[in-house]
Amino acid sequence: MQVPRLHPDTIEQVKDRADIVDVVSDHVVLRKQGKDFVGLCPFHDDKSPSFSVSPSKQFYYCFSCGAGGNAIKFLMELGKQSFSEVVLGLARRYQVSVQTMEPAQRREFQRKLSLREQLYEVVALTARFYEHALYQHQGQSALSYLKTSRHLKAETIQQFQLGYAPGGWQVLYDYLVGEKHYPVDVVEQAGLIVPRQSGGGYYDRFRDRLMIPIHDLQGRVIGFGGRTLSDAQPKYLNSPDTELFDKGKTLFGLDKAKQAIAKEDCAIVVEGYFDVIALHAAGLHHAVASLGTALNVGQVKQLLRYTDSKQVVLNFDADTAGTKAANRAIGEVAELAYGGDVQLRVLNIPSGKDPDEYLQTYTA
């Protein structure tokens, strides 16, 4: 959308509220060093931490490449965004009221901002709805599956906010639209309901499925993965791409894994949701998964922000499909590997098992 000229009061409020450490730490692993923080510079191929962030000065500076500035400048340079785009993003994040210099544009602009906020709200509420349903009578089979078949403890189920989508055609629709009065178009744009092909109306996208919320780096729910509990196909169904969710740019579990990746100086990439959940439950918190797509360069670069030595281990299923997925991933990042920008390794588990199956077999 075209960004109108922002009122100076909005810009000043954003500058006052945006915390440099808070903003930078979403993209760089920072470690406390005296009064400041240090990390690997995201603006050049930094081998040892030369990037410094000062909370007192609200300023960052790289002693190697000379990059420096405030929180706004950091996001402009990192994301190649305009000044106004960054200020607007920070205004949403820090709940600053947006004023523009053209009053006629304000209503339409606020409407577009409000839509994104409503989408975050409706998917968060839906996650709680699914989580509640898991512990009701209708969710007993799903809860039993998690505890008996997946051997997950209550704390792991709660940590990943696992839930259950009831089997009716309009259970979630009736809750969000009928009871909570969310606009139908907002619920549809969140990827939660689907228009009927004939006769009008909508039906729930996820029905009688075990639900796995997908989070962004800030821990906000942005989409879902649903596993069937019957013979229905597909076995796994993801949210469609939305304003909030792009599966090609998202890694499942990275919100929970990023600090562990920095601590272990290594990232493990697996194929499935339950591989990540099982590894985290076993204490291997530096595991993430791609979302039904081949691991791509953009996803690998996300991981490289958190590991100094650039170590990424592919631990895909040891079947034919897993081997093909590993080969595709290797091809995707070959240029990075040849340039020394990633230390890529492949871990093969014997007997054709995936990580979850292996853990269940040898840690039971």
Could you write a compact summary of the structure shown?
This protein has 364 residues and is of the alpha+beta class. It has helices at residues 8-17, 20-24, 71-79, 83-93, 103-134, 140-149, 154-159, 171-179, 184-189, 254-264, 273-281, 297-304, 320-332, 334-338, 355-362; strands at residues 31-33, 36-39, 51-54, 59-62, 68-69, 163-165, 193-195, 202-204, 209-215, 221-228, 236-238, 267-270, 287-289, 311-314, 343-346. A 5-stranded antiparallel β-sheet has the order 1-2-3-4-5. A 4-stranded antiparallel β-sheet has the order 6-9-10-11, with helices on one face.
Report on the structure:
This protein is 42% helix and 16% strand. The strands form four sheets. The chain has a five-stranded antiparallel β-sheet. The protein has three domains: 8-101, Zinc finger, CHC2-typedomain (DNA Primase, Chain A, Alpha-Beta Complex), CATH 3.90.580; 115-245, DNA primase, catalytic core, N-terminal domain (DNA primase DNAg catalytic core, N-terminal domain, Alpha-Beta Complex); 254-362, Dna Topoisomerase Vi A Subunit, Chain: A, domain 2, CATH 3.40.1360.10. The mean pLDDT is 88. Helix 11 (273-281) links the parallel strand 12 and strand 13. The chain has 15 helices and 15 strands. With 364 residues, it is α+β, with helices and mostly antiparallel strands. It has helices at 8-17, 20-24, 71-79, 83-93, 103-134, 140-149, 154-159, 171-179, 184-189, 254-264, 273-281, 297-304, 320-332, 334-338, 355-362; strands at residues 31-33, 36-39, 51-54, 59-62, 68-69, 163-165, 193-195, 202-204, 209-215, 221-228, 236-238, 267-270, 287-289, 311-314, 343-346.
